[in-house]
Amino acid sequence: MIRHIVMWKFKQSDGATREQNALLLKQKLEACRGAVPGIEHLEVGIATPGLDSTYDVVLLCDFTDKAALDAYQVHPAHLLVKSFLAPIREARQAVDYEI
């Protein structure tokens, strides 16, 4: 099994607040749960206002194997997430490891 963890920090945006963008991202990521084969677990966390956080959203996702993670990267549902993030993302950090 492969664990995939990604964190995003958003830019200030004229169109939507960070909180609105975080909620939209959460919805888009959670839509991958039923659409992408090989996802065993998918969890999205949004930074809680008032707590000391350096990033806005975190994804914790477990895949059956590396092939499933690779397939996720090019799946149409994931490509929609990436296109949503492109204009609002300031920074991204990720780590993948076997569990």
TrEMBL record:
InterPro entries: Dabb, Dimeric_a/b-barrel. Residues 2-97 form the Stress-response A/B barrel domain. It comes from Paraburkholderia bengalensis. PANTHER family: BLL2683 PROTEIN, STRESS-RESPONSE A_B BARREL DOMAIN-CONTAINING PROTEIN. SUPFAM superfamilies: Dimeric alpha+beta barrel (SSF54909). This is Dabb family protein.
